[in-house]
Structure prediction request, 259 residues.
Amino acid sequence: MKGLGVWLLALLWLGAAGAAPIDEGAADKSARAKKFYEEGHFEEALQLYRQAQVEAPEEKSLNYNAGSALFKTGDYAGAAAEFDAATAGGDEGLKARAFYNLGNAHFQQQQYQQAVDAYRQALEHDWQDQEAKANLELALAKQQEQQQQQSQQGQEQDRQSQQGQQQGQQQRPQQRPQQDQQQQPQPQQGQQQEQQRGQEQDQQQQQQPQGQGRNQRTGQRNRMDREEAEQLLDAMRDREKQAQQRRQRGTQAYRGKDW
Prediction:
């Protein structure tokens, strides 16, 4: 059973019956490459298949065998390219085997839709290929499983996204008052600064005339104080004279009294 392995063609002549044989050098290199391949030396086999392709570039069997060697080295993308090229020519048997191995190369890359298409193409060229049918069923099952996983991942991402949005909405009301409190002092400080500047301007305006008035009134007060002081001194002198006169009169009256 082929399973997910690959078929290898022994290239000694063209696949179509009655066709002229290929170049002897290409056939020799292909035969040596087949021996390396069967011994497990896939890199050496690939090199010889590449050399044979240079000598017989139109031979699709060489694409097929080069794809088989690439598949064994793990280069599934390169193998798929060679198998796809092999499906473009040759007999129905070669096309069927090329599509089968093309499906295997896509399957290894988890490209299940492409694998399904390739297996179906293989069955169109060889509808009795039971291994192609088995691999087609396996690829369909893997494709369905992959789609379910992708759907679950999409749902999980949507759920996480919704949770993130809800958490963001819950956090925003708690953060807004802090932002408002941080922003409020800014206009208040601006108003206070404007008020302070206005008060300073008013004080400056008030201080200038008041200072001049105080100087004028101070000079007037100084002059009035001297005049008042002289008047007070005169009044004190008068009161002192009157008091002396009263004391003298009192003394005289007392001394003159006969007890």
About this structure: The CA atoms of residues 135 and 208 lie 105 Å apart.
